[in-house]
Design a protein that fits this description.
The protein has 584 residues and is of the alpha+beta class. It folds into 4 domains: 206 residues, PAS domain (Beta-Lactamase, 2-Layer Sandwich), CATH 3.30.450.20; 96 residues, 2-Layer Sandwich (Beta-Lactamase), CATH 3.30.450.20; 71 residues, Signal transduction histidine kinase, dimerisation/phosphotransfer (DHp) domain (Helix Hairpins, Orthogonal Bundle), CATH 1.10.287; 149 residues, Histidine kinase-like ATPase, C-terminal domain (Heat Shock Protein 90), CATH 3.30.565.10. It has a 5-stranded antiparallel β-sheet with strand order 2-1-5-4-3, with helices on both faces. Strands 7-6-10-9-8 form a 5-stranded antiparallel β-sheet, with helices on both faces. Strands 12-14-15-17-16 form a 5-stranded mixed β-sheet, with helices on one face. Strand 14 and strand 15 form a beta hairpin. It is rod-shaped, with a radius of gyration of 65 Å. Bound molecules: adenosine-5'-diphosphate. Adenosine-5'-diphosphate binds next to helix 13 and helix 16.
């Protein structure tokens, strides 16, 4: 924990500083002391030597001299030796017991006998100890024939210096201990708040702004802690505001009925709302990338549009066919405010399949109506012009022409009536006069009405009504209209065989079927027969006066009664048209 902390660095710095300062101080002081002591003692030794020389010069008796040297040796705490020019001991204090021979370096002796005073320190093998030695020449007249040598042990001086060195080491240890204690307390006041700040900042980075720093001091660290707390609050507020804004925007986009999809320049989806997901559902489940969505849907138009918007940096609008739907797509480039570079493309997708279908239906309807009206109108125009031009020579021809014009007028009227009826049914602008209806009675009336026509057409007419059929709530006239349409169709499309009307109860409904053994309907036509103006065989139908509106009217009337219609048919074998009406 402390390895990389400020405190550990501070501690190491303080300790290093203490060690360096005390070490250099100790070395400096000890060498200074050493120098000071040695120069002082050597000066003393020289002064003492000069005084001893005076004693030596005043004493002629050798025995007496040695005695005095003894006393002086004790007094000065130094060994006193007198040597001749060859360095041989002439006299010395009795304590010494020196062997005869040279005890001083010949080089140094030379210097001494040339008149110099030589002082030096070093280990002396005669005394087996480090000694401070001084050699002073003794003059007989003008010439120095002898030399006085004083040897003083240096042990007391080095001991003093060593104790001073030890003192420095103790002081260093004490200082290190003190530095450690100071560092420990500093870690509490300086490092701990910093560690806490680090924790809080890390939490802030993760999005947790609840942790706060406990500010205890008003120094720089305290101020930093307070600033961090303030920053945390500000950040929290800003992030909350931003997330509210984002939420608002997301809610707006999500509640839009149009699909919104935002893509980055590479085609990856950045944002997509629910309607867009539904529109692109199949592909989005499989992949996240627009490129792959293109592959998935093979919707080259979509990809082309995206590429165009990206290159031209302009809005594009197009209807695109996608998974059987027509989607009005508006793609707009998205720019970065500062760099003005394109950072994505926003697409607004609108499912306009129904609108486009309605438009197409309207166009088809107008074309169909015009087409259907044109035929009888042209016929009427042609025959009336023939009458005007006097082309009908006799009364019989005139009557025939007038009869054709009359038939076409009736056909035209029927068509216009049916169209109006269908329009009212589809727009809901009609009232159903619902009453309790006895299905059996109604079917019997139909039988009465068409019996002769069916027999005249050489067909058999059968009724198969389940006993005890309940009454239904329905509009009597509209129900009759449905049955008339179905029976007339059966009659029109059946050349031989039979027409059967059956009625039965199924769950809470009463169902009626009209079956014939006629031409039947092909599988391809089956899906379209309920559409307006749809006729399977146009020439045959024309001859039989069909408008292509009958089944559409049937379907709308049954729907208005909350019922359902169906057809079963096989080509050349016959058809069965049926419908059910709820009982209640
Ligand atoms: P239309 O007034 O021309 O009969 P409908 O809407 O009643 O128009 O019928 C649409 C088409 O369905 C007809 O043109 C006809 O070809 C076919 N169709 C209807 N009923 C039958 C049926 N019973 N048998 C065979 N085809 C039928």
């Amino acid at each position: 924990m402390f390895r990389n902390s400020i405190i550990s660095k501070l501690w190491i710095s303080i300790v290093a500083l203490i060690v360096i300062v005390l070490l250099s101080l100790s070395l400096g002081i000890s060498s200074l002391l050493e120098e000071f002591y040695f120069s002082r003692i050597s000066d003393e030794l020289v002064t003492e030597g000069k005084q001893i020389i005076e004693v030596i010069n005043s004493e002629d008796d050798r025995e007496e001299l040695i005695e005095k040297l003894d006393i002086l040796s004790n007094f000065t705490n130094a060994h006193i030796i007198i040597v001749d020019k060859k360095g041989l001991v002439e006299a010395c204090n009795t304590m010494m017991g020196l062997p005869a021979g040279a005890i001083f370096d010949p080089g140094d002796l030379e210097k001494v006998f040339s008149g110099q005073i030589v002082t030096k320190t070093g280990y002396h093998h005669h005394f087996e100890a480090p000694m401070l030695s001084t050699a002073i020449p003794l003059f007989d007249g003008k010439e120095a024939n002898r030399a006085l040598m004083l040897f003083k042990p240096v042990a007391p001086i080095t001991e003093t210096i060593n104790s001073m060195r030890w003192l420095t080491i103790y002081a260093a240890i004490g200082a290190i201990l003190l530095a450690s204690i100071v560092s420990f307390f500093l870690s509490r006041t300086l490092s701990r708040p910093l560690v806490q700040m680090n924790k809080v900042a890390t939490e802030m980075a993760k999005g947790n702004f609840e942790n706060k720093i406990d500010v205890k001091s008003d120094d720089e660290v305290g101020l930093l802690g307070a600033s961090l707390n303030y920053m945390s609050n500000q950040l929290k507020n800003n992030i909350m505001e931003l997330s509210h804004e984002k939420e608002k925007l997301e809610n707006i986009i999500a509640s839009m009925s149009d699909g919104v999809i935002t893509l980055d320049p590479k085609g990856n989806i950045i944002l997509i709302n629910n309607p867009a997901e539904i529109l692109l559902a199949k592909c989005i489940q499989q992949t996240e990338s627009m490129d792959k969505i293109f592959d998935c849907l093979t919707m080259s138009d979509f990809k082309l549009m995206f590429e165009e918007v990206r290159k031209e940096k302009q809005m594009h609008k197009k209807d695109i066919e996608l998974l059987g739907k027509i989607i009005s797509t508006r793609m707009t480039p998205l720019f970065d405010n500062e760099s003005k570079k394109i950072i994505g493309v926003v697409g607004i997708l609108q499912d306009v399949t129904k609108e486009r279908e309605l438009e197409q239906m309207r166009r088809d309807f107008i074309a169909n109506v015009s087409h259907e009206l044109r035929t009888p109108l042209s016929l009427m125009q042609g025959y009336s012009e023939a009458l005007l031009d006097g082309m009908a020579e006799d009364a019989a021809k005139k009557e025939k022409i007038i009869s054709i014009i009359h038939q076409e007028t009736l056909r035209l009227k029927r068509m216009v009536d049916e169209l109006l009826d269908l329009s009212r049914l589809q727009t809901g602008h009609f009232n159903l006069n619902k009453q309790n209806l006895n299905v059996e009675d109604m079917l019997k009336t139909i039988e009465e009405k068409y019996k002769t026509a069916v027999l005249n057409a050489g067909l058999e007419f059968k009724m198969d009504i389940q006993e005890g059929l309940p009454q239904v709530k329905a509009d009597h006239d509209r129900m009759q209209q449905v049955l008339i349409n179905l029976v007339e169709n059966a009659l029109k499309h059946t050349d031989e065989g039979q027409i059967v009307i059956s009625a039965f109860k199924e769950e809470e409904q009463v169902c009626i079927e009209v079956s014939d053994s006629g031409t039947g309907i092909s599988k391809e036509d089956m899906d379209f027969i309920w559409e307006r103006f749809y006729k399977v065989d146009k020439s045959r139908n024309r001859a039989k006066g069909g408008t292509g509106l009958g089944l559409s009217i049937v379907q709308n009337i049954v729907k208005a009664h909350n019922g359902k219609v169906w057809v079963r048919s096989e080509e050349s074998k016959g058809s069965t048209f049926g419908f059910c009406i709820p009982i209640g």
